[in-house]
Amino acid sequence: MDSNLSRSISRSLSRSSWKMEEVFASGRYSRRTSHVDEDEEALKWAAIEKLPTYDRLRTSIIQNFGEGDHHHHHDAKAQHREVDVRKLDMNERQQIIDQIFKVAEEDNEKFLTKFRNRIDKVGIKLPTVEVRFQNLTVEANSYVGSRALPTLPNTALNILESALGMCGISTTKRTKLTILKNASGIVKPSRMALLLGPPSSGKTTLLLALAGKLDSELKVTGEISYNGHKPNEFVPRKTSAYISQNDVHVGEMTVKETLDFSARCQGVGTRYDLLAEVARREKEAGIFPEAELDLFMKATAMEGTESSLITDYTLKILGLDICKDTIVGDEMHRGVSGGQKKRVTTGEMIVGPTKTLFMDEISTGLDSSTTYQIVKCLQQIVHLTEGTILMSLLQPAPETFNLFDDIILISEGQIVYQGPREHIVEFFESCGFKCPERKGIADFLQEVTSRKDQEQYWADRNIPYRYVTVTEFTNKFKRFHVGMQLENELRVPFDRSRAHKAALVYNKWSVPKMDLLRACWDKEWLLIKRNSFVYIFKTVQIIIIAFIAATVFIRTKMHRRNEDDAALYVGAILFSMIMNMFNGFAELALTIQRLPVFYKQRDHLFHPAWTYTLPNFLLRIPISIFESLVWVLVTYYTIGFAPEAERFFKQLLLVFLVQQMAAGMFRFISGVCRTMIIANTGGALMLLLVFLLGGFILPKREIPNWWVWGYWVSPLTYAFNALAVNELYAPRWSKPSPTQANLTLGVSTLRNFDAFANKNWYWIGVGSLLAFTILYNVLFTLALMYLNPLGKKQAIITEEDASEMEVGEEPRLVRPPETNRESMLRSLSKADGNNSSEVAMQRMSSRSNPNGTRNSDSTLDSATGVAPKRGMILPFQPLAMSFDSVNYYVDMPAEMKEQGVAEDRLQLLREVTSAFRPGVLTALMGVSGAGKTTLMDVLAGRKTGGYIEGDIRISGFPKKQETFARVSGYCEQTDIHSPQVTIRESLLYSAFLRLPKEVSREEKTQFVDQVMDLVELDSLKDAIVGLPGVTGLSTEQRKRLTIAVELVANPSIIFMDEPTSGLDARAAAIVMRTVRNTVDTGRTVVCTIHQPSIDIFEAFDELLLMKRGGQVIYSGPLGRNSQKIVEYFEAIPGVPKIKEMYNPATWMLEVSSIAAEVRLGMDFAEYYRNSALFQRNKTLVKELSTPPPGAKDLYFPTKYSQNAWGQFTSCLWKQWLTYWRSPDYNLVRFFFTLASALMIGTVFWRVGKHTLTTSSLTMVIGAMYAAVIFVGINNCQTVQPVVAIERTVFYRERAAGMYAPMPYAIAQVLTEIPYVFIQAVYYSLIVYAMVSFDWKVEKFFWFFFVSFFSFLYFTYYGMMTVSITPNHQVASIFAAAFYGLFNLFSGFFIPRPKIPKWWIWYYWICPVAWTVYGLIVSQYRDITTEMFIASENRNYTVKDYINHHYGFKSDFMGPVAAVLVLFAVFFAFVFAVCIRALNFQTR
User: Which Gene Ontology cellular-component terms appear in the entry (predicted)?
Assistant: First the structure.
């Protein structure tokens, strides 16, 4: 039986092979020598053939070589054994992959060809998909210019407008933007199609439209069909897969786990059916398949395996096999590199059975040889298994470009060319444009349609050049022979009878629901293990609070004399209920963090929403049981609740249910709110409602009629009643009450709290809590099913782009009609000539200093015809950098230690020696993972961990980080900028902080303008930066901004980490032009670079090439047309010569790859160390490491270029702008305060006017307490994400030496004050009026004063928690820990005189206690009305009663005020200190 099983698996493996595997096969197979082997194998096959079908499909033959020696097949005797393909273990799977695919591309092709032959031999046709689109038009609405900036007023306007829009009143003038216009075409099966086009030409929109994933708000006309079927006749999201350009992954899962999960969700599609059919026909025809192929096909066609061979195959062809056990990583966890993450995104879709792929820019961050390898593998899959792929690439190298069969060229939303690659150059030549020599065709195509770059390609110089618009190109294409043929094909509808039934997918889920549930279950369990820190932290936190509660309400102090004592027990019950409720707050951050990944997988139809929510709910139950058990064990008997065992377990059950209910509620809130800021607010509002109306702050009889419904829908009502009934019906509370005749003490207490005096309420409470738990989880599931992620998808178009888009016969942008004044202004600004670069150039060269010295130079220059050097208002000192034998180690990662690596340290750089000189542009190159970025970080002093050895010198002097930061700039690969600032503001900010103070204001602003001109950001100077991938600037504009921010500091040495990754050819050319301009000013520039096109590569002067393991294999000049480097490598015996027109960068990476080293049996690093070049570099480094005579070491009198006041004003200016433009933060906060003020006002309507009794006083205190603590906690929670985002920017700016942490922190702290002030003003007015306290000026002033400082210290407390924790998720859990203590000691649950003396100190340091103190004393300190106290049987005046019962002295207002101010100052101070001392970045 086993053997048959194994057979079937391998069969299935082989089936999937047609999917991907061909990509890597190796020619290992057919070298069997002895006949003996073959006979033995034939016997086994014969045996397998006799098995029943089911088993036959699950059994195959695996070859093992005796000594495991793969090199010499002749010596080792091969053994064949039967295996069950479902039971292959990790090593066997790895062995199969290694045997079949030695070198990815070549072996994959061999393998796929065999697969194809096997299928052709028995005459099976593979299913294919042809995608057509006709007259596809997509339109969107957008705002133009400053109306698009998200300032507070603009956002408030937008909200108003959308509200009015719902009532059917339309107000604004929105602008219509056409994204795609009349696009038609065919994506054919078994042909690779490439989608090219300049940025924002509509590539992504076209891919999304074809994959059926367009946003529903867009207006779409035209039709799309697959094999002649309309999208509503089948499931397009399962038939095709869209691979996004944004990488959204769960950071804690490893690469292999991510792919395995994806494979389990997507199933094997038709692979199993294909295998069964092949096996059946082979049996009839008597054909024996080849062992390896059969094994592979069988193993990849088996459903339900936890990690399939297809995953290993995908890892191999994507080159991810080296990092398969590394976590993917996110902002907080260091994971795989950017390029690897990109490949994980691709792999995630490829492991499924889908053969129709729409890939959006999958090569971002990959070097050209890796891109080539992946595209080559995909091409083999397409050709040999008849898949359909449409891929958009940014900078395809010529050799990658040549792998494609069809090209679709799109520009300004129109399709300019669609057809075979061979005719595209011919088409443009017919239009009069020619592609120059040594220029990639892809780059030429992207530039030829653009207004800025078209002219250089004009072919016939005799005819004057005229700009050819995109519309003209499209019309010419319709008359071109390819265009005519396309039109004819589209006229004939697709013949449905030719379509294969299996080509389209008709059911939503490809895997049985239980299997999906199992996959999600495993993933949840894995994540709980990986995130165990959070859960352990939560449990420890609840244990600590349990201990505190137990010692505050300790039994020796708890008497049972009268209702007052009983009230204390109720206080303890309440406290434990509330703490267990708050324990769920951590769910918010955790759930929201995982939503983006969930939405992605939901949209790809990986699994239904309930398979995600069910494990999520069930797996947390054991944790919750444990927490509630600990809580009740610690608190129950120490507090001295009723001793009966039955009541103990009843309370335990209730505590557990409260926890489940709370977790469900917070999950539901996060599913509906979908972003952290809104969730904190929505969550807090819901909590406020549930709390205020839970019947314990305000007894039911006091709740105004219009709020009574809230009492019945609040889950806490039921929890409170059940807990109270459980305790107060115990035998020991059955003695008669001292104050109320014929009632027991227990019932009388219940009456006081207006709880239900009825034993059945325990079970009613349990039932209700259970119902709430189920309800919230069901609602959460529904929210996940039907709500989409929030995000402003609205385009922001600058006025200038708008005016460009409006021209032409068919403008892309149509504005609403406008008033005369506006249009006049606009035409004026157009006439200003700021869009014509010529004018700008003249303006630049003639810009003169106030004293006129520059003028003479520039006239001289222009007379001699030499262009002046650009942007050189400020002088700088050119510096060279040399380094000798640099080594860098990190501690060995724990994962590798587990796998048995013995060393303690992992070496990332070995003996790196070279030099960078002024005016020379150096490229740092190497395959992914060679240590390029590591070397830059080490040289720039950006590493925070690890061990650095070696000698680094600046112009001969040893490098000191403090001074070095002043003369160097570092452009990170990730562009980190404050999201709410415009480009010009970012640059001004950087310039003002980093240029020396001797430079005047005018010069600084002028310099900023020059830099903007240098990096060509002039037209965008008022665009807001936005968050990467969400809003604001495109990747390439962001990249240029990163460069500009460093340039305005006027540095002498600039490091750039992958300045061109993620850019298309034209954008990359612009960025490189920027870099080149920078070098020509005489600065030292070093770039790491991934996949340079020929022109980018040859813009460099020198090259430092590294191989894996951080060793140098070439360091020296490139030479004209890369002459030098080509000569160096071609001189090595065995290295193939470079092909004509081939990209030298790609060639160089290929000939020096690890595979090449193995083939040649040599080490390139060793070869370089023995070369003459190495000796030359050694001498150069020696020369540079001695300072030239008379040179002085760099010296700056102060650490920062600005004094503290200057730093402070700049920081304040930027913080202020950021806040003014963060509406989601400020509006949300204001809205929340307004809502809670109104809620408190209506719930406690005119409580201040009641006759004073003990219970009305308790109510007032409850009201004050609730008001302050909720608004305060909301302030605290909402400020956290804001500070956390700003902190990442702060790390970059501090590393660049822009400012000291202190001025920054003070600025951040001061910016909050005006906002909190406004908040406190209207809050105090509303609450004071509605609760109708005594209208006296001083009383109102005190109320306002206390509220303002309470809100302020809560806000600063939130900032402080962020500054002492690594991210805002941990911060919110940490902050929540103290809310509990603030709650307990606020004087509401247990009055101060009742607190045991060993805890009284905490009362004095609890800020909320002081707030409540201040509020009560300021209102009641002068009231001398008498009131009767029943429990003591005597009269008190109000002020005496407050003193006697709560310990509030009436003459204590001054100290209270001082202490509140001190709290705010203290928290702000701790924030500043921690920001300075702690660094949570790991590099």
Answer: membrane
d(CA 1022, CA 800): 11
Q: Residue 330 corresponds to which tokens in the numbers above?
A: 């996110």
1428 membership: H or E segment, kind and range = strand 1426-1429
Does 877 reside within a domain?
A: no
CA atoms of 1003 and 1020, how far apart (whole Å) = 21
CA-to-CA dists, residue 1334 to 134, 332, 562, 1237, 1259, angstroms: 73, 52, 33, 18, 16
User: Which letter does DSSP use for residue 1444 in this model?
Assistant: I
Under DSSP, is residue 1391 helix (H, G, I), strand (E, B) or coil?
coil
So what's the pLDDT on residue 70? 45
Tens of pLDDT, residue by residue over 509-558, are: 888 889 899 999 999 999 999 888 878 888 888 898 899 989 988 887 77
- DSSP-assigned states of every residue in 321-341: GGGTTSB---SSS--S-HHHH
Element (H, E) at 987: helix 983-994
> What is the CB neighbour count within 10 angstroms for residue 1245?
17
Stretches in the chain below the pLDDT threshold 70: 1-42, 45, 48-49, 53-54, 56, 63-79, 104-105, 142-152, 154, 162, 165-174, 304, 331-332, 365, 791-873, 1028-1032, 1062, 1064-1066, 1482-1483
Q: Quick check: 690 and 697 in contact, CB under 8 A? A: no
Please indicate, yes or no, whether residues 1180 and 1218 belong to a single structural domain of this protein: no
Give residue 38's pLDDT: 64
Amino acid at 103: V
Name the one residue in this structure whose structure tokens are 């509509």.
202
Which residues span the domain enclosing 668?
514-786
Helix (H) or strand (E) holding 1437: strand 1434-1437
- Given a contact cutoff of 8 angstroms between Cβ atoms, the answer to whether 425 and 435 are in contact is yes
Which of these, 1076, 1105, 1157, 1138, lies nearest to 367 by C-alpha position?
A: 1105
Contacts of 902 (CB under 8 A, 6+ apart): none
Q: How far is CA 792 from CA 431, 817, 866, in A?
A: 40, 25, 48
557: its two tokens: 């102090």
Helix (H, G, I), strand (E, B) or coil at 1093: coil
Say whether both 1273 and 1139 belong to one domain: no
Give the model confidence (pLDDT) of 336-364 as tens digits: 877 788 889 888 988 888 888 999 888 77
Tell which residue, 1214, 798, 1160, has the closest CA to residue 985.
Answer: 1214
**Same-domain pairing of 1174 and 1243:** no
Relative to beta strand 240-243, strand 947-954 is unpaired
Q: Which residues partner with 947 through β-bridges? A: 889
> How would you write 1405-1420 as a 3-class SS string?
CCHHHHHHHHHHHHHH
Q: At what angle do helices 104-121 and 2-20 cross, to 10 degrees?
A: 110
Q: What is the pLDDT of residues 1281-1298, one digit of tens each?
A: 888 888 888 888 887 888
Q: How many domains does the chain have?
A: 4
Last-in-domain residue among 768, 786, 804: 786
- Tell me: the pLDDT tens digits for 583-630? 877 778 788 888 989 998 988 889 999 999 999 999 999 999 999 999
Tokens (6 digits) for 857? 């130079």
Question: Quick one: pLDDT at residue 454?
Answer: 82
> What is the b/e burial string over 273-309, where b = at least 16 CB atoms within 10 angstroms of the residue's CB?
ebbbebbeebeeeeeebbbbbbbbbbbbbbbebebbb
- Contact between residue 394 and residue 361 where contact means Cβ atoms under 8 Å apart: yes
Compute how many other C-beta atoms are within 10 angstroms of the C-beta atom of residue 558: 16
**751 lies in the same domain as 603:** yes
Q: Is residue 258 part of a domain?
A: no
The pLDDT value recorded for residue 684 is 77
Q: What is the CATH number of the domain that holds 908?
A: 3.40.50.300
SS3 content of the chain, % helix, strand, coil (to 5): 55, 10, 30
Q: Which DSSP string do the residues of 56-72 spell out, in sequence order?
A: HTTEEEEEEETT---S-
